[in-house]
Amino acid sequence: MKISITVMGITRGDVLAEVGRQAERLGFAGLWVPEHLVMPKEVKTPYPYADRSRIQVSTTSPFCYPFVTLAYLAAVTRELRLGTAVCLVGERHPVILAKEVATLDCLSGGRVALGVGAGWLPEEFEALGIPYARRGARLAEYITVMRKLWGEDASSFAGEFISFDSVRSYPKPVAGSRLPILMGGDSAAALKRAAKLADGWYGSHLTPDQVDDRRRRLLALAESAGRDPRGLEIIASPHRDSASQAHLRAYQRVGTDELVLHVPRFQRLDEVAPALERLAAIWITTAAQLE
């Protein structure tokens, strides 16, 4: 099982670069960056993850733009996977997003994994002038659009939300339309979208038992959709009460391919190496013993 980390709230370039360099040195598999483009002053919508009713970060937390952050990390690393956890696809124009992702993938040597989600915060969509209703359908359509732009020389599309005729979008991702897309979300609808459209699923703040439940449902849905479920990646961030070596073994037993740890929002350069070394000594060492 791979062990990766989430990078959030780091606004100093030297500190961010140190996180990338140390993570690669210590054997972490990837760096994942979350996203909110804007946050309301007061969040009234219940937070749908981690068995909580309120979002677990302050509305003043610095959500750095994920693709700028990942481009910065790409420049100081050579092998780490670079992922979004997750990109709120429906809040963007898919032609622009396809270009951003493809450019990052080319510059990083094919290391991008696009974690995507429908979004859960109506106020965020409202601030962007985008309807919150049918956001799941919008996400599904935009994934189709991006796959076409990444895989075809000239693409045309006519859908509910976007239409264009005979356009080219270069550069292409290293893997073309096969650039990995991981569907985030914990709802039945998200699992259905993952089974139909994605290369895997990304679950947030889940216990091993919850991962096991979602994985079983996802694989059954994939089979029903005529897909081979064996090719789907299962990626999860652990629940706050699931942070021991015994829990890590439990995540491995239920088929987790990659576990993404949340790390502190480092503010000083000298904080980075000791903290990541402690995490690596526990999690990476134990994961290696499970192989």
Description:
By secondary structure, the chain is an alpha/beta fold. The protein has one domain (2-289): TIM Barrel. Helices cover 41% and strands 18% of the residues. The protein contains nine helices and eleven strands. The protein has an eight-stranded parallel barrel, surrounded by six helices. Strands 6-7 form a two-stranded antiparallel ribbon. Strand 8 (181-184), helix 6 and strand 9 form a beta-alpha-beta unit. Helix 1 (13-26) packs parallel to helix 9 (269-289), helix 3 (94-107) crosses helix 5 (135-151) and helix 5 runs parallel beside helix 6 (188-197). The protein is globular. The model has no long low-confidence stretch (mean pLDDT 94).
**End-to-end distance:** 8 Å
Order of helices and strands: EHEHEEHEHHEEEHEHEHEH
**Can you give the mean pLDDT?**
94
Give me the CATH architecture, please. Alpha-Beta Barrel
Proportion of strand residues? 15-25%
Structural class: alpha/beta
Number of domains: 1
CATH topology descriptor: TIM Barrel
**Which CATH first-tier class would you pick?**
Alpha Beta
Arrangement of strands in the largest sheet: 1-2-3-5-8-9-10-11
Number of alpha- plus pi-helical segments = 9
What is the number of beta strands? 11
Helix proportion range:
40-55%
CATH homologous superfamily title: Luciferase-like domain
Q: How large is the radius of gyration?
A: 18 Å
What summary fits the major beta sheet? 8 strands, parallel, barrel
3D shape: globular
Low-confidence stretches: none
